[in-house]
Every structure is written in structure tokens, then in C-alpha cells.
Specification:
Layout (H helix, E strand, L loop, with lengths): L1 E5 L5 H11 L3 E5 L6 H10 L7 E3 L5 E3 L1 H11 L14 H16 L1 H5 L9 H25 L13 H9 L5 H8 L1 H11 L5 H7 L9
Parallel strand pairs: 1-2
Antiparallel strand pairs: 1-3, 3-4
Helix pairs in contact: 1-3, 1-7, 4-7, 7-9, 8-9
The structure holds glutathione.
Length: 214
């Protein structure tokens, strides 16, 4: 049994999606620094950085870092075929883009989620908000120019990379901008949004008036 510390709208939803497709039972514990006091305490107890996702493996090991968790889950459950195999020609691209989404894009949300972490004052906050928004948009655009998707981002089979991009692309500046910047990726994330085994998860974990657009 896996234990996942996570929260709606967060990166943990990509891990929930992977566990759902794998069909592995998991216990989900609401934890987030921006949740109520109890959720904050649980986030601090789960991960020294107080971040989610945090996964406790069936052998009791703590895993943090969304990309590592997703790759490890996919590799540990080859029957679910959620990552290219070690010898597959798609493997280098898969690893490249998993690391890219984590390092170039997701990492900027540590800044964006609380602009006062780096900004000296309100004017500075607005500038950092604008510049990180542009940087994220640029990074999606660059990824779009470098990838030639099949039905999914690396080939014809859905991988955890598709789940990762489907989640991170919902965060600000949001899907409308993402679709503009990255039309090829957009086509794939719409397919992932509509995956019959995931639609319930998406609507439950991204509960918005405009549905799956996040
Ligand atoms: N490097 C981590 C980043 C995780 C992360 O930033 N999670 C956010 C939620 S999406 C969080 O818990 N933020 C709380 C904080 O750092 O203040 C990963 O890739 O999993």
C-alpha cells in the first residue's frame, strides 16, 4: 500500500493519476503548506521541505520530488506501461522532458506561490510575477518546438510525462496561455484530460467552474 501526501490542484495529482492508471491501492493524506493548520502540520511532518507530493513506498521509504516519484512508479509497474523501457528509443527524450518540467518549470512555483519569498516589496512582487509567468510560457514554447508528439508526448503510448505536463500546465499562467504557446503539447494534454480512466480524478482534484481547463 502506498501513502501519498498531497492536495487538490498540486503536483501530487500527477502521482494520483499514475497510481490510478497503475491500479495500485493508495491512502491519500491531505497535506499542504497553504491548507488549514492540520494540513500544514501534516506537510511538515511528511517532508522536511514541507512540500507535496510526498510518497511513502510499500517498504516504508519516503520519496519526494515529483519527477523521481513518477519515473520510479512507472518503472516499478512495467505492466502499466507508463514509461518507455530502458532500451526504448524514446527513453532519452522521456528523461529529458521529465527533468525539464521539474527543473525549468515546476521549480519556479516555489517563487510564484509566495512572491514575498524573493521580492523586497509589492512592486518587486509584481515584476517577479510577470517575469516568472513569461519564463514559464517561454519554457513551454521551447518544449513545443523540440518535441514531435505521437498520440502522446513521447510516442504512441501514454507515459507519466503526459500526466506531469497535464497537471503542471494547469497552473498560472494557465491553460489558455499554454495552448497558445505550445499547440502540439496542447493537443496531447487534451487527450490526457479526456482519458476515460482519469476524467473523474481531474474533475475532483481540479474543481473549477471551467471544468478540466484548470
Ligand atoms: N521539487 C518538488 C516541488 C514540490 C512543490 O513545490 N510542491 C508544492 C505544491 S505543488 C508545495 O508543496 N509547495 C509548498 C512550498 O514549497 O511552499 C517536486 O518536484 O515535487
Amino acid at each position: 500500500m502506498y501513502t501519498l501526501y498531497g492536495y487538490k490542484r498540486s503536483g501530487s495529482v500527477a502521482v494520483e493519476a499514475a497510481l490510478t492508471l497503475i491500479g495500485a491501492p493508495y491512502r491519500l493524506i491531505d497535506a499542504a503548506l497553504w491548507g488549514d493548520a492540520e494540513a500544514q502540520n501534516r506537510a511538515r511532518a511528511a517532508n522536511p521541505l514541507a512540500q507535496v507530493p510526498a510518497l511513502i513506498t510499500p517498504s516504508g521509504e519516503l520519496m519526494t520530488e515529483s519527477a523521481a516519484i513518477l519515473i520510479w512508479l512507472a518503472d516499478s509497474h512495467p505492466e502499466a506501461a507508463l514509461s518507455p523501457t530502458l532500451d526504448a528509443t524514446e527513453r532519452p527524450a522521456f528523461l529529458r522532458w521529465m527533468a525539464y518540467v521539474a527543473a525549468e518549470i515546476y521549480a519556479l512555483y516555489w517563487v510564484r506561490d509566495d512572491l514575498s519569498r524573493l521580492a523586497a516589496d509589492e512592486a518587486h512582487q509584481a515584476m517577479i510575477d510577470q517575469r516568472t509567468r513569461e519564463r514559464i510560457s517561454f519554457c513551454w514554447r521551447m518544449m513545443d518546438t523540440q518535441i514531435t508528439p505521437g498520440r502522446f508526448l513521447v510516442g504512441e503510448t501514454l507515459s507519466v510525462l503526459d500526466l506531469y505536463v497535464a497537471v503542471v500546465s494547469r497552473w498560472k499562467p494557465g491553460r489558455a496561455r499554454f495552448y497558445e504557446e505550445a499547440p502540439k503539447l496542447a493537443e496531447v494534454v487534451r487527450r490526457v484530460d479526456d482519458h476515460p480512466r482519469l476524467t473523474e480524478l481531474w474533475s475532483g482534484r481540479f474543481p473549477t467552474a471551467d471544468g478540466h481547463e484548470g
